What we know:
Layout: H1 7-14, H2 18-27, E1 34-36, E2 39-41, H3 44-52, H4 59-62
Antiparallel strand pairs: 1-2
Helix pairs in contact: 1-2
Amino acid sequence: MDPLLTTAEAAPRVGVSAGTLENWRVAGTGPRFIKSGRRVMYDPADIEAWKSARRFQSTSDVGAV
Length: 65
């Protein structure tokens, strides 16, 4: 089992800055996260699942989602 990641550790795996990942949390558009008290952590499996859900063959596939 992979260890949980902080926002700073997760951001490069998603390909965005930590600030963007924080904004996505507020908007509910980023990968799932775990809240433990004040800490926010990411499970690498959730990051990979989020990325997999956003794979497309062509630009016309994007509108179908």
